Amino acid sequence: MFKLILSDLKAHVNASENQGIKFWAMVFAKALFSPGAHAGIIYRISHQLWLNPITRPLAFVLKYFSVIYCTAEIYPSVKIGPGFCVSHSQMVLIGNLVQIGANFRISPGVMISSDAGAVSSEARKGIPTIGDNVFIGMQTSVIGPVHIGDDAAVAAHSLVLKDVAPNTLVGGAPAKLIKVLDPSLDRHYTQD
Fold this sequence. Notes:
192 residues, UDP N-Acetylglucosamine Acyltransferase, domain 1, 6-stranded mixed sheet, 5-stranded parallel sheet, globular
């Protein structure tokens, strides 16, 4: 869990910086003062608690605390790879059982959820999955059984109701292809 938290904190800092004292000072500052980083840390701890049925109720207490303190509601059952970055935590919702890959960057006002608040195994077919190195712009909704491929980006104010191919930029309501992205470019999005 601590390696995941560290990878998340590092994702909040410009990765092009060297690993010197300035870089680590920025990582430390994000850990102390960034509500987005706090939302990620609270999620990681709540997910760890959720894995054990005995401590599962505490996971939901932490989720509730995150809603109040960070205005981010990330369900403890969500699976998110390393390098998770909540650039600003205002009004972020990642619903029950969503699966997300590594190096995921989310903007304010984003909702990622099933089409029916799925809790049963039959209803889980409606849950979004997101690949590695994905960016989702502000005020975007990803709803239902969609898959967003690796190295994709979703523009701000979009509504994603269908699958998004890898290495593409989509946008609009409903989201449509805007551009095919160059797969040779580094998609590790960094905070400016």
